[in-house]
Amino acid sequence: MRLAIIGTGLMGASxxxxxxxxxxxxxxxxxxxxxxxxxxxxxxxxxxxxxxxxVQDADLVVVAAPIAQLPAQVAAVLGASGDATVTDVGSxxxxxxxxxxxxxxxxxxxxxxxxxxRGAENATASLFDGATWFLTPVTHTDAERHxxxxxxxxxxxxxxxxxxxxxxxxxxxxTSHVPHVLANVVANQTGEARVEGHEPLAHxxxxxxxxxxxxxxxxxxxxxxxxxxxxxxxxxxxEHRRRVEQIEAALEQGDAGFLxxxxxxxxxxxxxxxxxxxxDPGALQRLRVHISDRPGVLAAITQALGAERINIEDFELHxxxxxxxxxxxxxxxGEGEAQRAAALLERQxxxxxxxxxxxx
Length: 360
Description:
The protein is of the alpha/beta class. It contains 13 helices and twelve strands.
């Protein structure tokens, strides 16, 4: 199949690499010549000089432009691409579906994956492995076009899920956009505060670091997302405000029962979320390993655990400072395996704390 990529940043170049891995002929174009050059250098695609050149003779066109440019780019591609099937990878869907103006050749799409890195130089074909990839066919979408995109998404390792465009935008407001809003709120509130002369950020704990991991994300991307999905985000924030007021009332009344039920409900919901990622989330153990700030420490730990055939389900590094080093959090399945990993690392001089993920 001949595939055209319009927009060659991280997402577009990753789609291109995944398509090439399955044997597709991939060309691409970007309004930014430097972004296109980076994708070509990465080996993701063959660059062409114009949008028209990219979509000529294409079987499938994937539009990976920024949100603010996406509706216009989709309309331009539909106007220039003859009989090609057209999809996109934008994180909001109602606006771009409207821009397609009822074309039966358009199938909206949104892969739920990404990276804190940017640019084609960080693209990878494995970005979509195991990811949900929303598709938003509507009543006038041609069924064969939907099947084509559905098959492509499956072939690159993702799981296609059909959803109404408006429902999609309400869903991602809750699962992605509002968490970004709240991470920024917490980071800014903490950063602006002083408590009797003390700066809270100077004494941040792991919970603050965890909750604000996505704070300050690229404003060129996130301002457009917030504005494009403003109604759904405002609706989700209204519900969030109602729930915060419930907590305020419980604290004022000393209602320990409500708070206990509230925490229990959150624990059950978190378990449901983790069950999608891990076969037995109840068995997950977290190892917190204090490490120094010197090159090679992370590689040494992962190699040591690998040599003992201890499977790492996930890991994350929290850096404190050059003087204090940081904390490596490692997820291991099973209490026995976690204790074996802790003993190995303690013999090598590391301080390790083990705790169940779902009981924290």
